[in-house]
Amino acid sequence: MQVTVVNKQIQATPADAIIVNLFEGVTTPGGATGAVDTALGSSDGIPGSGAISRLIQLGDFTGKLNEVAVVYSQGLIPAPRVIVAGLGKREEFTLDRARQASGSAVRKARDLGCKRVATIVHGSGIGGLQPREAAQATVEGALMGAYQFREHKSQTDNKAIEELIVVEYDANKLSEIEAGARAGQIVAEAVNAARTLINRAPNVLYPETFAQAAQEMAARTGLKCTVLNEAEIAQERMGGVLAVAQGSARPPRFVVLAHEPDGSDAQPLVFVGKGVTFDTGGISIKPSENMGSMRADMSGAAAVFGALQAIAGLNLPRRVIGLIPLVENMPSDRAYRPGDTITMMSGLTVEIITTDAEGRMILADALHYAKRFNPRGVVDLATLTGACVVALGEGVAAGLFSNNDAWADAVLRAAEAEGEKLWRLPLYPEYGDKIKSDYADIKNSGGHNGGVGTSAYFLYRFVEGAGEYPWAHIDMAGMMFSNENKGYLVKGARGYGVRTLIQLAQTA
Ligand code: BES
Ligand code: MN
Ligand code: ZN
Question: pLDDT tens, 386-442?
C-alpha cells in the first residue's frame, strides 16, 4: 500500500472513501468530521445538520471504539463514501485506540472494494495527541488492519487498498505528520512481515527458508545477516539446537541479524526469538488436534525478524542484534528422546524429560551465545508454554520474567506504549529447585504445576553467572493468533512483540 500525505480539506479530497471519526457521546461533530457533516447537509452550512449528525440523532452510530458507519455522499463531495470511525469515550482515549479505530475503518473500506482511501489523522485534534505520533498510529492501524494473508490461496477476491491518503488541513502540522506517516508505514510493514512468516505453512517455512527470508530482508534494509548452518552450529557446540533439530530431515539454522550504525554503542541490545518452525512435540508427541497451530511456534523469531527490519528502516542510532535459532521438532528414528542427556553450549548438561520442552533448549544456547556481545540488555520472545496461556489467557497478555527490575520496567513501559499487553511474573529461585536433575545438572521440565515459572528459570540458568546481563523473557504462547478481525488485528497471526521491541530500541 502506498501512503501519501496531502495538505487539503478532507471533504474536498477525491477518493473511493474518506475516513473521519467521532468520540462516543458527541452529538454535534466538530473539526474535520464536522466539516464533512456540514458538507453533507441539505440546509447549507448549518452545523449539526448533515448526514453524520442524522446518523447520531437516529441512534444508528454512537462512536464506540471500533464501531464503523458508512454514509453515502450523494455527489455533495468528491468521495462517494464517508466512513465514520468510533474512537470510544474521550476520557479513555489512547494512542492505541487511534491505531485500532484506523484499523477498523480502513478494513471496512477494503471490504467495500475501495482502492484509494483518504483519512484524517485520528486523535491529533481534540484527542490531544501530538500530530506526529497520531499520524504514525493512524498509518500503523490502517496498514495492519488491512493486512491479508493470501499466499496459499489460488483464488481470491482482488480487494486491496492501493493508496492511503493522509489528509491534514493545517499546513503547520504537515512535516510532523509526514514523519509520523513514514515511521508508521515502516513499523506496520514490519508487523505484517512477521505475520506472514507466522501464517506461512510449515512445509513452506522451515529453518532454511526462514533464514533465506532473513537474508533477503537484510539485503533490502542494510542489516548484516550471518546464517550458521548445521556444521557451524556444531562448531559452536550448540547442543540444545542440535538435539532438537536432529529428528527432522530439515537441518537447523542460526541467524544473526545486526544493525550497527557508525559510531553506535559498544553494548548492543540483543533480541532473541524462538524459531521452532513446527512443533510436533517430537517423541513426546502432541495430540493431533490443533497441532497445526504449531506452525506459529516461531512467533518469537518472527517478532525479532520484524523488529530488526523496522529498526534498520527507521535507521535508529543504536546497535541492535537479533538472534534466531531455527529448528523443526519432529519425531523420527534420529530424534532426541526422553532420557537423553544433552551438553549445552554453556557446558551445562540437561536431562530430557520431554522432547516437547524444546523451545528452552534452543533459547538456552542463543542466550549463552548472546554473552559474546556484552549486551546492555537482552529480551527473548518465545511461544514457550501452554502454562502461560492457562495463567494469563489466550489473546489477553504475554508473561514477562526478568532478573533486573529496571530492565523489566523498560520492557513493560515499551509494551504499554504499544498496546501490547504484558504482565510480569516472578522468577522465584524455588522454580530452580524444581528443575534439579538426578542425572544431569538440570532437567528440561519441572512438571505441570508452575510450568511457566520453571521454564523461565531454566532459561535463567543460561543467563546467570559470568557475563550475566539484564534479561527479560517474554512468554507469548497465548499471543500467537487472533481469532477475530478487530481494530488492527486480523484473523490469524497477530505479529505480537514487533512493536514492543521497536519501541524499546527507541526508548531504553
Ligand atoms: N510450543 C509449545 C508451547 C505452546 C503451547 C505454545 C500451546 C502455544 C500454545 C512448547 O514447545 C511446549 O510444547 N511446551 C510444553 C512444555 C511442557 C512439555 C514442559 C507445554 O507447555 O505443554
Ligand atoms: Mn513443544
Ligand atoms: Zn514449542
Answer: 999 999 999 999 999 999 999 999 999 999 999 999 999 999 999 999 999 999 999
| 278 and 174 within one domain | no
- Asked if residue 196 belongs to a domain, the reply is no
Q: Who's near 477: CB < 8 A, 6+ residues apart?
A: 382, 383, 384, 385, 386, 388, 389, 398
Please choose, from the candidates 362, 329, 390, 356, the residue with its C-alpha nearest in 3D space to the C-alpha of residue 462: 362
In a domain, 486, yes or no: yes
Distance 337 CA to ligand 2 centre (A): 13
Q: Which of 419, 398, 413, 396 is nearest to 103 (CA)?
A: 419
- Using DSSP's 3-state secondary structure scheme, residue 245 falls into helix
Which tens digit of pLDDT belongs to each residue from 356-386?
Answer: 999 999 999 999 999 999 999 999 999 999 9
Q: What is the CATH number of the domain that holds 370?
A: 3.40.630.10
Of the chain, the percentage scoring pLDDT greater than 70 comes to 99
**Number of independent structural domains in the chain:** 2
Residues 186 and 263 in one domain: no
Label residue 72 exposed, middle or buried (CB < 10 Å: 0-12, 13-18, 19+).
Answer: exposed
Ligand closest to Cα of 443 equals 1
Q: How does pLDDT run across 329-342, given as a tens digit for each residue? A: 999 999 999 999 99
The residues lining ligand 1, judged by C-beta closer than 6 Å to any ligand atom, are: 279, 297, 354, 356-359, 383-387, 389, 445, 451, 477, 480
Helix (H) or strand (E) holding 166: strand 163-168
Can you give the residue range of the structural domain that contains 222? 218-336+354-430+459-507
pLDDT at 43 over 70: no
Clarify whether residues 319 and 410 are in a common domain.
yes
Same domain, 360 and 245: yes
User: Each residue of 62-121: pLDDT tens digit?
Assistant: 999 999 999 999 999 999 999 999 999 999 999 999 999 999 999 999 999 999 999 999
pLDDT tens, 243-276? 999 999 999 999 999 999 998 888 999 999 999 9
Residues tagged active-site: 286, 360
Question: Are 409 and 280 contained in the same domain?
Answer: yes
Whole-number CA gyration radius for the chain: 24
